[in-house]
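Appendix B, Record 12. Input sequence as logged:
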Amino acid sequence: MGRNKRVQVSNDTELKDRLVAINRVTKVTKGGRTFSFTAIVVVGDENGLIGWGLGKAGEVPSAIAKGVEAAKKNLIKVPVLKGTVPHEQAARFSGAEVFIKPASHGTGVVAGGAMRAVLESAGVTDVLAKSKGSSNPHNLVKATVLALSMMRDARMVAQNRGVSMDKVFNG
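Logged structural output:
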C-alpha cells in the first residue's frame, strides 16, 4: 500500500491500540444461527508509526486481541511534522474517499469516527480531514492509512531525487 514499506518494530516500542468498530456477524447453519464478532483495530505509537488489523472470534475480547495482533504485523511509518501532516493528500479505497489537509497548531484533529482513530494513533494532533462516499469503517480505515502512506516529507523527496535538502526547496 502506497510508497512506504512495512516497518519492523522492536519489542520496547509502546504501541497503543484503539478499537474503531465492532460488528456482530451471523452464520446460518443447519443447527441454527452461529454468532461471532469482528473487530477493526488501529495500533500506533503516536509518533508516526501506525497499523490496522481485523480480528474475528466468538467473543468480543478475543476478536479485539486478534485484531491487535494483525495490526502489529502491518505497521507503516508516516511523516508527522510538528503535529500535522506535511501536505494535502486524497485517497480512495473501494467506496470510501478521504481528504487530509495540514492545519496550524491548536486546530486539533478535525475528523470523524474511523479517520479520527487512525490519525490520533499516528500522532497527528492538528489536521483537517474529510471523508466522502461510504462511511463503512473498514474501507474508511483502509483509505486513511493509504493516504497517510502516500505522504512524503522533504527528507524523503530529497532522498528519492538524490539531491540535498537545499536543492528541494531552492530548485
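Helices lie at 60-73, 113-122, 137-149, 154-161, 165-170.
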